[in-house]
User: Fold this.
Amino acid sequence: MSNQVKRIAVTGAAGQICYSLLFRIANGDVFGPDQPVALQLLDLPQAQNAVRGVVMELEDCAFPLLRDVTITDDPKTAFRDIDAGFFVGSRPRSKGMERRDLLSANAEIFRVQGQALNEAAKRDAKVIVVGNPANTNAMILAANAPDFPTANVTAMVRLDHNRALTQLAKKAGVKVDEIKKFVVWGNHSPTMFADWTHAEVNGRKLPEIIGDDSWYRETLIPEVARRGTAIIEARGASSAASAANAAIDHMHDWIHGSNGDWVSMAVSSDGSYGIPEGLMAGVPVICKDGSYERVTGVPVDGFAREMLDRTVGELTEEREAVSALL
Ligand SMILES: NC(=O)C1=CN([C@@H]2O[C@H](COP(=O)(O)OP(=O)(O)OC[C@H]3O[C@@H](n4cnc5c(N)ncnc54)[C@H](O)[C@@H]3O)[C@@H](O)[C@H]2O)C=CC1
Ligand SMILES: O=C([O-])CC(=O)C(=O)O
Assistant:
C-alpha cells in the first residue's frame, strides 16, 4: 500500500462511538500498520469544543500514523478529498424507541451530507453509514450524491453479523473465525435475518453441528435482533465500542479483503434475491482487492424467504416514509 496519507472523514466525532473509533483508526486498524492517515472530523457547532478535547487525547496517544487532524462543522470541509468516510453523527435512540423512530430526526442530516459528499469527496472514497436507521440513511446519502458512485455507499450490519457469530460459536463449541458463510440479510432493525442456512465449520454444515432448529429460530434470531435494545437497557446508552469495532471490521475487510469468506454488508440492491433495486439491504459479499462482490445464487427458500421478505418489506416502508428526500 502507498505511503501517501489517506484522508478519512468521521462524523459525530464528539459522540460515544467515535470515542472508540477515532483511536482505532489512528492506530492503523483500518488502513493498516504502514499507512499514515489524516482525520477530518465533523460535528455540530455546539460540539466543537468537545471534539477539541478528543483531539487533545488523540495527540496524547502519539500515534505514529496520525499525520493531521481537521475539526469542522462544515460537511464540505470534512469530506474534501477523502479516501474513506465513517458517517456516525446522528441522534441515538433511547429506551422505548425503535431505530426507525429516528428517521424523522436523522434523515435530513444525510440529505445535507449527501450533497456535500457529492461536491467534495474523491470518487473512489469508501463510505459506511453507521447512524440509525443506517440502511435508509445510506440510501438518502447516496440519492443526494448523484455524481458519487452509489456502490461506494454502504451501511453497517456488521455489528449484527459479529453478534451472531459469537452466539453461534459458543453454541457449537468452535472459534468465531472457524464459522464461514454466515450472513445477516436486510435491515439493521428487529426484522434483520441472521441466516445460518449455509454456514460451515471446516466444511461441515453449522446447522447440523448445532442440531437445534428451535434454538436457531426462537433464541438466536430474536436475540441478535434485540441485542441493541438489551444493551440500551443494561448500559443506559446504546452500544459504542462494539459498534466502532464493527465499523472498523467492515471498512478493513472492504479495503484488505475477506479472505474468500462471506461478510455482511448493506449495499444498494441490484434487484437480486427479490430485494427491490436501490434499497440498502444486508447481503453476503466477498471483499477482494479493494472492492466487494455480492455472493450470487444463494438459495433462499421457505423460512429464509419469509424472513427476507419481512425485512425487505420494512425497508420498502422506510423508503416510502422518506420519499421526499430521495
Ligand atoms: N448501525 C449500527 O450498528 C449502529 C448504529 N448506531 C447509531 O450511531 C449513531 C451515533 O451513536 P453515538 O455515537 O452513540 O451517539 P452520540 O449521541 O454519542 O453521538 C452522536 C454525535 O453526532 C453528532 N451529530 C448530530 N448531528 C450531526 C450532524 N448533522 N453532523 C455531524 N455530527 C452530528 C452529535 O453532536 C454527537 O456528537 C446513532 O444514530 C446510533 O443509533 C449505534 C450503534 C450501532
Ligand atoms: O440499538 C441501537 O439503537 C444501537 C444499535 O444500532 C445497535 O446497538 O445495534
